[in-house]
Amino acid sequence: MGLESALGEGYLTTKLDALVGWARKNSLWPMPMGLSCCAIELMSAGDPRHDISRYGMEVMRFSPRQSDVMIVAGTVTYKMAHVVRKIYDQMAEPRWVIAMGACASSGGMFRSYSVVQGIDQFLPVDVFTAGCPPRPENLFNALIELQKKVEKSSVLDYRDRKEPIIIS
Amino acid sequence: MNSIIEQVVSGLRERLGDAVEDVREFRDDVIVVLSRDAIVDAATWLRDHEEVPFPLCEDVFGIDAYSRKQRFEVNYHFYSVTKKVRIHLKVRVEEDDAVVPSITAVYPGAGWYERETWDMIGVRFSGHPDLRRAYMPEDYEYHPLRKDYPLMGVPGSIPLPKRG
Amino acid sequence: MSEHTKTADDFFDTPLPTTNLPPKEQRSQLLQALLDMDPDISFDDPLENDMVLNMGPSHPATHGVLRILLRLDGETIVSAMPELGYLHRGYEKIAENETYHEFITHTDRLDYLQPLHNNVAYILAVEKLLGIEAPVRAQYIRTMLSELARISSHLVGFGVMAMDVGAMTLLLWCFREREKIHDIFDLVVGARFTTSFTRIGGIAQDITDEGLAAIRAFIDQFPERQQEGERLLNRNRIFFDRCRNTGVISAEDALAIGLTGPNLRGSGVAMDLRRDNPYMIYDQLDFDVITETEGDSLARYYVRLAEMKESVKIIYQCLDKLPQGAVHAREPKKVLPRKERIYTRMEELIHDFMIVNFGVNPPEGEVYHAVESAKGQLGFHIVSRGEGHPWRLKIRSPSFCNLQALPQMLKGHLLSDILAVLGSLDPVMGEADK
User: Fold this and answer.
1) C35: Cβ contacts below 8 Å, ≥ 6 apart
2) Which of A109, B39, C96, C112 could form a disulfide with A37 if both were Cys (CB 3.0 to 4.6 A apart)?
3) What's the predicted TM-score (pTM) here?
4) How far is A84 from chain C (nearest CA, A)?
C-alpha cells in the first residue's frame, strides 16, 4: 500500500476504530457477577473441559475497576439490584453487560414479588443469553457475539444505540 | 401413633392441661395444637424431657389460614436425635393480636426462623432479642406470604436504581 | 547530618497547628500523644473504636450473595452478623400458585449444587401427602442419582473450600469430576444441570443400560481421583493450619443452634436421616454414618470427604441390586400417564388433562418429610386444603440454619479465618434465601 511502502517496515495504516476494536475485543476481562445457579455454570465454563481461556476472556476479576464486561449470572432481586448497579457504576468505561440466563434476561421462571423481571430495567444490556441456566457453550456463544460487537464499535461512541444481541 | 410419641403427647397433656387444644395425626405426623401462652413451657419441657429429649428445633414457620377466625398459625418442629422421632406443635393467633412468645431462650436456633416468620407472615415474637426481617429490606411494609398479598407484589414498593 | 539521616525528632521541629483542636479533656489519646511528641505511647486500639467491615454481597468467597457485617478489633472478629435476602426469590409464594407438578422445576434451583436431591426430597413429601409410593425400581434409581448429586455437591464444597484457603488446583480437579457427573445426568435425565427428574409416583423416564454403564464407569474411577485430590490437600501444612481449630463448635451448641448434616456430624453427633428415619430404600443398604469429634473446619472437611466414599458404596449396591419393573406407580388419577398412551387412549387423555390443568387432588392435611441432603436436613412441609396446589409449602432449608451458626463460629477468630469457616459450612444461598 502507498503510505506503508513509503514509510518502510514497521508501519501499518488502519482506521483507529479497527485497531482499538481489535485490541479491546481480545482483552475483555469479565466481572463474574455470580448470583445463583448460573454462577455454577459460569464456573463450569472455566473448568478444564470447557476452558473459557480459549477466547481470551478468562481473566475473571472480582474487582469491578479491573474488568470490562459484567456477566450477570443469576436471579437479580430488588434487594440485589442496587448492589449490581453500584458495581456496574464502578467499572471503568468502556464496559459491557451480558445477561446470562433467563432470570437475568427476563426474570425467568421467577414471577414473584422479589425478583426483578429483567435487568434491562436498570442496566444497559448488550447480550441476552437464553437457558436456565445456559450451557457453558451458550455462554461462549454470547461472549463471541459480544466480541464481534466490540470489534465493530467506534472509539468515541463505543456504546452504539443498536438493539442488544439475543442468543437463543 | 408411634408409642414414643404417644408417651410424649400424654406427658404434654398432663403438663399443660387445657392448654393442649387438639392433637391431630395425619400420615404419621403428630401435630399438637397448643394455646399461645403455653409454647415456651412446652418447648422447655420437650427439650429437657428425660427419656425422649428433643434437643433440635428444626423449624418454626407461620401459616396464613386466612378465612379462619384465628388467622395465623405458627408451627414448630422438634426432633429427638436419640429416639429419632419428630413432634410438631402449633399455636394459633388472631390477626389483631399476632404476637407469640419467643422460644429463643430455650432454643437459640429458633432465632432466625422467628425472624423469617415475622418477615413472611407478620407474626411478632415477644422477647426475641433481634427481631429484624430475614429476607426483605428492613423498611419494607408488607408481609409477602399473607394470602392478601399478590404474587407479583406491590409495584414500586421496592425502588430500583435508575437505568441511566 | 546529611539529608537522608533525619530522625523523627527533626520532623517534629515544626509545631503542629493548634487551631481547631478539641479541648484537652476531649482529645483522643492518639492526638494527645502526637501533640506531646511522645514516641513511646502504646495503644490497645489506635482508633479507639472498633471497625465495622462489610463483606459481600458480591464477594468471591461468600458463595454467592451472602453479606456478612463484621465488627473488628484490629484483625480479630468481635462479632459477625450474616445478612440474607439478596437471593430471596419467593419460592414459598410461587408454590402456592402452582400445581404440585409445576413446582418440581423450582426445586432444582433451591440448592443448585445438587438439583436432583431437591427433586427427590420434594416429591417424597408430595407422595407422603398423597399416600402413594413409587415402585421399587424408581426408588433405586432415585437413590442412586441422589447419591451422585451428593457427590457433585460435596465436590464443589471440597473444591471451593480449598480455593478459598488458597489451593486453586483442586477446584479445577473437582470440576473435572463434576463434569463427568453432568454427563451422566445428560444421558439419564436429559439435562446436565437442572434435572427436574422426579414425577409424582415415579421418575421422568426409566434408566437405560447405557446410563447404568456410565454410572458404573464413573464410580469405578472416582475413588482414585478423589485420592489424588486428598493427597494434594490432606498433608498440606498451609491447609491444615488454616482449618484446624477454626470455627469450633461443640456438639451441644451445634444442636442448640440447629446445625444439621455434615456440619453437625463434624461435631460428633451421629444424626443421619438416611439411617435414623430411612426413606426410599436406605434401610436395605449398608453404609456408615461418618462423624468426627473436633467440630472445627477440618473435621467438617473430613466428614465430606468420607461421605463421598460412602456415596460410592451406596451407588455400587444400588447398581447391583437394581430390580426390573415399572418406574411409575399404578395410580391413574395421581401419576401422569405416558405420552404414547395419551395419544391412543381416551382414559389416559382425560387423566392427563385433569392432572395438568387442575393438578392432583390430595386430601386435606399437613405433612412434613425430610431427607438428608448434602447440606443437611432438607424438609418440605405441605399444608393441603384439598386443592391442586399447596395452601402453604414451607421449605426447611439446611443452609439457612447452618448459616445461623456463623456468628458463634467466627467470634474471636481472625478476619482471614472467615474463608475457612464459611467454606467448611458450605452454604448455598439459593437455598438459604429461598
Assistant:
1) C16, C21, C27
2) C112
3) 0.87
4) 8
